Amino acid sequence: MVLALLLGGGGFAAWKLEWFSGNGETVSFGKNPASGSGGEAGKAGGAPAEATPSGDPDVQMPTGPKAQFKQTAKLDDGTIVAKTTLVGAKSGFTGDVWVWAPKQYDDPKYAKSGFPVLIALPGGEGYPTNYWADRSLGLHKAISDGVAAGTSLPYVVIMPVLNPDAKYYYDGSDIPGQPKMGTWMAEDVPNFAKANFRTYKSRDGWAFMGSSSGAFVGMKTVLQHPDKFKAVIASGGEIVPDSPLWKGHQAEMDANNPEKLAKKLIDRKGPEVYINFQIGTKEGGKDRMVKFQQEYGKGPVKTTIRDIQNGEHNGWHYVRGMKEGSLEWISKVLKAPKPEAG
Q1: Is 305 within 8 Å of 293 (Cβ atoms)?
Q2: What is the DSSP letter of 155?
Q3: Is 290 strand, coil or helix?
Q4: What local confidence, expressed as pLDDT, does residue 4 receive?
């Protein structure tokens, strides 16, 4: 009956037009005009003509070459989720990546500013799609609403596939004999962001968020590369590597274990990293977070645990936790864009 009511009026048609109009069309970010066919835009190297940073030497203007983006969703504020295929120069892996930029990114006042990057990782197989690209989960709207409320930075959100297939978990790692998903995540995906968006050179503008297996990958990557990434929102309780593909490769698995990586970071006294765990009160796994915090949440490893009341193991509830405080938490430790005066 509910479906019939929706279909019976003009509301559904307007809703459908609003959400899906333009899907499949070529789009660009930062008001950098694409050619009519979209072909030449993908070949353009270097930064756009107007891309001259002022004041802050940490600002990194787009390095190019520019990717070809196709719209996959439109938000109510007119911002776009778009997809491209990335050929990983360092990993050798080719996979899809979705992106979203807040409306501030196209504001002329921010034309010479960098933006913080949030790499959003899904749970499960994380292939062939990244569910954070689906507007129904509300991640992008949560960021936009947080910006309006002064509780979130306006992040550029990068949403890559997590795994090279849907058969195994690859733990975001370079497992011997397998696709180099650790290199994909730590090098190719950030380099892609730098090629296409105004970012920051320092780690102060780089963070992860993820759920379940994606939370593990985000946390592991931050601990493994604290020179490149500063913080992570890790939802769902995954702490240690568990891919069956590690069999026979104990040393390599240990090199991708967040517990061992955290201990190394503590022993060498930095740099500081920030881990915000999220866990629903209706799911298991908090004991693993508490154990990690007790054993490794010291010195340069800064940890917090956020309980999501009545939360379950799903993206909707993790976004709610972000709105209730985790976005504000991570925004306090990352670098904000700076508009020009006037």
Answers
A1: yes
A2: -
A3: helix
A4: 32
